[in-house]
Design a protein that fits this description.
Blueprint (H helix, E strand, L loop, with lengths): L1 H5 L7 E4 L8 E5 L5 E5 L6 E4 H18 L4 H23 L3 H5 L5 H5 L5 H15 L3 H9 E2 L6 E2 L6 E2 L11 H11 L4 H7 L3 E8 L10 E7 L5 E9 L5 H4 L7 H12 L8 E4 L5 E6 L14 H22 L2 H8 L4 H30 L8
Antiparallel strand pairs: 1-4, 2-3, 5-6, 7-8, 8-9, 9-10, 10-12, 11-12
Helix pairs in contact: 2-3, 2-12, 2-14, 3-12, 3-13, 3-14
């Protein structure tokens, strides 16, 4: 979508953009204090870019999701307007905050859930948050993906998603991984490096990533303390952002560092183990904890009421992320107090979704006619 957005008008005002701000990239995650906050949680493509691009991406994704969930066409526009209105009104609120107040501000899960109108949904939501806060994600997933005797635990092979390197036995550390890990630790603060030093690598396995990252190297790293306390890290290859062709090259020589910088700018709290490095193969990597209280909502099951609430949440979260790196007063002043801006973004989002569906139909026709070859798995 970046190429399409690059050909649309923009104000020339840059923020730290997500680069892939669709609704499924928003969710809950844990702070170091074990609170759960709501924010963008995937920033592989982050780069300074026009602020409108993220909002258009987000709004268009709500149209696509709503149609996929069989929401009436007459109600879809209202869902998109909820998103843009939330972004605009919250940006106005953030513009009135003092800099340090804004920088330390976060959207707690309790705060977001309390905005719901259904008492049953509020009760269920708060119950889930309390349950998540009481968990150690590493200890929870430990029995799911680890096997072996107590003193020689290894990651289970779960083909085709998780498997070990060829010619490297489980429990042995591939030399390339060992080098990446050693260099990575130097990107952490002294305090966090000291914390990491209390863990030792026990095993590494290859992890197959999602559709958007096909072909990207990714590893799961199991570490443990002398007392058997587990820590799981994910090392993922960092490639050039899709935005760079249209918004300019990254200021960072290492794309892992670009991503880490994006997390620190856009999220109120970041993973203490978030860091970057470069491998002997010349590839760039960033590392973070694997699934540390990540609450991923099943948007494909949302009805119109849940989509409306979620649109409000995502609009507010995106506004906060942009306000942290941009000038909230300038952005708020541009959008104004009326719904003219909201309506314009809704017009774009519906038109874009229509074009997306036409393009997909054309792709299917080309495959059916034999003009294009497709493989199904």
């Amino acid at each position: 979508m970046a190429a399409d957005l690059a050909n649309t008008p923009n104000t020339g005002i840059y923020v730290q953009a997500c680069g892939d701000a669709h609704l499924s990239n928003f969710g809950g995650f844990a702070t170091p204090e074990r609170n759960v906050i709501f924010s963008i949680n995937d920033l592989d493509e982050t780069l300074p870019a026009p602020w409108e691009w993220d909002l258009k991406r987000l709004s268009a994704s709500f149209v696509a999701a709503s149609r996929n969930n069989h929401i009436a066409e007459s109600e879809i526009r209202d869902i998109v307007l909820n998103c843009t209105k939330s972004y605009r009104e919250n940006m106005a609120d953030f513009s009135k905050m003092k800099i340090m107040e804004l920088w330390n501000y976060s959207l707690t899960a309790e705060m977001m859930i309390s905005k719901l109108k259904d008492p049953k949904m509020i009760k269920e939501g708060l119950k889930r948050v309390e349950k998540e806060k009481g968990r150690s994600r590493a200890e929870e997933i430990f029995p799911e993906i680890v096997d072996g005797p107590k003193k020689s635990k290894v990651i289970k092979d779960e083909l085709p998603l998780i498997y070990h390197f060829e010619k490297v036995d489980p429990g042995q550390i591939h030399p390339a991984v060992a080098e990446v890990f050693e260099k990575y630790s130097n990107s952490l603060s002294a305090g966090h490096k000291s914390l990491l030093d209390r863990f030792k690598i026990k095993d590494v396995a290859i992890k197959v990533v999602g559709v958007g990252s096909v072909g990207t190297a990714c590893w799961v790293i199991l570490l443990m303390t002398g007392d058997g306390e587990p820590l799981f890290l994910q090392a993922k290859q960092a490639r050039k952002s899709v935005l760079e062709a249209y918004a300019g090259n990254s200021a960072f020589p290492n794309h892992g560092q670009r991503i880490v910088n994006g997390y620190r700018l856009m999220q109120p709290y970041s993973d203490p183990f978030l860091g970057w490095t470069k491998g002997a193969d010349g590839l760039h990597y960033f590392l973070r904890q694997l699934r540390d209280i990540k609450i991923k909502l099943k948007v494909e099951e949302f009805d119109k009421n849940k989509l409306n609430h979620f649109a409000d949440w995502c609009g507010q979260a995106l506004a906060l992320s942009h306000a942290r790196s941009g000038d909230a007063a300038v952005l708020s002043g541009y959008m104004g107090k009326s719904d003219v801006f909201d309506q314009a973004i809704a017009d774009f989002s519906l038109a874009y979704a229509n074009q997306n569906e036409k393009d997909f139909a054309g792709l299917k026709r080309a495959i059916k006619s034999g003009k294009l070859e497709a493989k199904y798995e």
